[in-house]
Amino acid sequence: MSSDAATAAGSGEDERGDGARDDRGDAAIDVRALHKSFGTNHVLRGIDFSVARGEVVCVIGPSGSGKSTLLRCINLLEEPQSGKVYVGGVEITDPDVDIDAVRRRIGMVFQSFNLFPHLTVLENLTIAQRRVLRRSKSEAEQLARANLAKVGLSEKAAAYPAQLSGGQQQRAAIARSLSMGPDVMLFDEPTSALDPELVGDVLAVMRDLAADGMTMMVVTHEMSFAREVANRVVFMDGGVVVEEGTPEQVIAAPRQERTRSFLARVLDPAAAPGPIEH
Amino acid sequence: MATNTTSTPGSSTGVPRSRLTRRQRRRLSLGVQYAAFVAVLVLLALLADWQTLRTNFARGEIAREMFPDVLTIALRNTAIYTLSGFAAGLVLGVLLALMRLSSVPPYRWLATAYVEIFRGLPALLIFIFVGVGVPLAFPGTTIPGGTVGKVALALALVSAAYMAETVRAGIQAVPRGQREAARSLGMSSSRAMVSIVIPQAFRIIVPPLTNELVLLFKDSSLVLFLGVQLEDRELTKFGRDLASTKANITPILVAGLCYLVITVPLSYLARRLETRNARASA
Fold this sequence. Notes:
The complex is a heterodimer of chains A (278) and B (282).
Chain A: H1 2-8, H2 10-16, H3 18-22, E1 27-38, E2 41-52, E3 56-60, H4 67-74, E4 82-87, E5 90-91, H5 99-104, E6 106-109, H6 121-131, H7 137-150, H8 166-178, E7 184-188, H9 196-211, E8 215-219, H10 223-229, E9 232-237, E10 240-245, H11 247-252, H12 257-267
Helix pairs in contact in A: 6-7, 6-8, 7-8, 8-9
Chain B: H1 22-47, H2 50-57, H3 60-66, H4 69-100, H5 105-120, H6 123-137, H7 146-173, H8 176-184, H9 189-219, H10 235-246, H11 250-281
């Protein structure tokens, strides 16, 4: 089953050409033969995956397909059992690598925001700059305010996270990651915990980021965002990459049956044939 | 028993019991409980020898004689002993909690052994160990800080075991995503602990720590067994000494009231903080 899937995944690879895969220096993220299990649950079953500099890649798939686990392996919040992960040409799965230094270059946005509730929004944005990057208070605050302006939260600098709406919290969390000056941003279902009317503001911030040329890997259920912003869409199911390609290819004209049935359920939930989860 | 008496036609109200509404039955049950409570109070008041009680426990002139020393020396010393013991205990408690959560097995074993041993021993035994055992074990050394140092050490040894468990629970109550967010910003494990996890843990554990402080206030009375100078006496020792010179219990009563002046507001504060935390997390 997984060998079929690997062949099917070829459609996306062909497009970029085989050279791109071997040129590690050019890829912002390069994942090879990645396996990850939680106990007896084999979540990732040999993932080969890459994101080029400046590329926006959306990862879609049913829950339990391993897409969030893949994302979390890329900054080693989960440790894979085997396989290699390169970020910016550095092999982060090498036991000798300084993982804290690598993570400074990778921004991470969580589904549940994870702002620090005991700090103000401004302090949320400055604490890692000051404690990790050893920036001065004024330098850190200047950068933090610039990033808050970018996400439209200038007036919330002195507020505590609990005083913000979910959408505002998520935008503050994006600004917090940006304040570290990352080369790559990872988004783990950034709008899944939000009320529907707050999703738009967060997606708008992400769209701006993409337009600025940020390298982004986004695990999402927002098909319209994927269609509009992604350079490439990756469909995962059962711990393997089933299909990848441009949004037009994967979302509008999926080749694989599994992709088609997933998209049918997501795009028109009311007409869903059979159970939603499997 | 009384409730299962069903229709008794000749009952005073003329209404069978079973016809009582739920609310009426509840009122009746409450009324019975209040009546019993008042009856016990009246009985105790009648049986007590008020004359003897007054001369033994509430002699105004003896109580007046205790001031201001009971406040300026005794209460002050109690506060100093308790707070220094609490501070030292908290430091040791945090250390033990971090050891229990460590990925290094010997740290975990050591901390677990400490907690199990010191939680299982009476505080009095620990005071005796500190007062007698330490000078014997390390001849020629004295615990720095004199009496305050000794009491602080003993109280710290006792309270650290309890506080370690409290702090550990607080650290574990901080959501995992907080640590993940800190780590993904490039913070080291210890930096994330110090800057992100521990400050949040402390908000969670302020109420139980306040309760621990109340317990320590009372345990500070065990300084009695260390043999202290006159100027080092705290409330219990002060009250007991005076009670034996005057052959009257009044000083004990006054000392007791002094404890309550501190512990009751503290307990109240702990409850307030607890409800505030419960509201904040809801």
